[in-house]
Amino acid sequence: MKFIETIKNIFKIEELRKRIVYTVALLLVYRLGCFIVLPGIDASMLATLQSNSNQGLVGLLNMFSGGAFGNASIFALGVMPYISASIVIQLLGVFVPYFRKLQMEGESGRKKMNQMTRVLTIIVICIQAPAYLASIHSQIPAEAFVAVRNLGWSGFVFNLVSTLILMSGSMFVMWLGERITDRGIGNGISIIIMIGIVARLPYALMAEITEKVTTTNGGVILLIIELVIWFFVIVAAIALVQAVRKVPVQYAKRVIGNRQYGGVRQYIPLKINAAGVMPIIFAQALMLFPILFSRWDATRGLAATLGNYTGFWYNFLFALMVIIFTYFYTAVTVNPTMMAEDMKRNGGFIPGVKPGKKTVEYLDSIMSRVTLPGSIALAFIAILPALAMILGVSNSFASFYGGTSLLILVGVVLDTLQQVEGYLLMRHYDGLMKTGRLSGRSGM
């Protein structure tokens, strides 16, 4: 009854109702585009491409694009070029003084960086689109290219037209994400990625249920155990995403006119997993390099060992790289010096710690300590799909036991729920949960 009442309250708020409907409409447009094949390609001959699009880094790209990568769709590149450009601009904001200055200019600086991100996205597309088309040519038979065969197009004309379509499709997906952010329920790019992942879940779950139900030697019991374990893995992922270390900050009292400002204690929430899913993405990309050693007889055994997805050395090296990249990405994105300067500028200080250099050292030491358990937990979640496959879970369903899929789902769902709950509390309705609170939610 509480849940039904909350749903009714959500649709009573006109602005929130319009935003939800607008978001759903744009997501339907995106999902429709994921099944529109590039002009000139026979869709009935894509079986090889689709089967190869579930492995390694290609599988990650296919997941981010909601299956469009394996369908040779006009949205095949999806939001990956935009994500790549965003990461580059974010890293430049750490290492290049000009970009660091733009970050500190507020809204005007953010607009300039967004424009640079769009331009860089086009450059990335111009590199990725020909590479994707070359991959298609190598994986599907020549008879699949209807335009080249029937319309008399040359290979150059086909590649040029397809590149322009892929570029337009990717920019259109990016525009959809921005519209969802501005006029929908926010986090447009993240929601588009999440929808692509969720679209694969029903098929994977039904395949797992069918496989276990048709098994006579206790398949139903195994299925129940799998679902129970999956539930606790989701709970653990939620705890990892929301876990923070609160650092107390005291602000000095200031009297302006007849009013007193400051004099209250607030907290800086330092996330245990400040790097999100980026360490797993970087590590997965690097784990493709051992495949290159399979070309030579002397290193073929090493390539087979490091390329075994469920093998010990693959997962050990994968987990180790996730831990290393977690520290690296946290160091890049979390800047204790900037936090200390902002506190000093606003008259704030950490009780018992001197402002300036001592505050920077204190924040840096805390981040180093909380990042260690966070990185270990992230590495464990990263290798959970492999462990699930070893224990008998099907490959398609095992990918939801951890890794990038689970963390993106949990993170985006929590952010969206926080957005909806903000509207409910602002209109004096009860929140989404009777007890507990979402990260960032005001106390009740």
Structural features:
two-stranded antiparallel ribbon, mainly alpha, Preprotein translocase SecY subunit, 2 domains
Q: Helix proportion of residues, in percent?
A: 55-70%
Specify the number of helices. 18
The CATH superfamily of the largest domain is SecY subunit domain
Cα-atom radius of gyration? 24 Å
CATH class of the largest domain: Mainly Alpha
* Regions with little confidence, pLDDT below 50 for 5+ residues: 440-444
Cα shape: globular
Instruction: Write down the oligomeric state.
Output: single chain
Architecture of the largest domain, CATH level 2?
A: Orthogonal Bundle
**Cα separation of the termini:** 21 Å
Return the domain count: 2
Order of helix and strand elements from N to C terminus = HHHHHHHHHHHEEEEHHHHEHHH
User: What integer is the average pLDDT?
Assistant: 80
Report the β-strand fraction as a percent range.
Answer: 5-15%
E-strand count: 5
- Tell me the structural class: mainly alpha
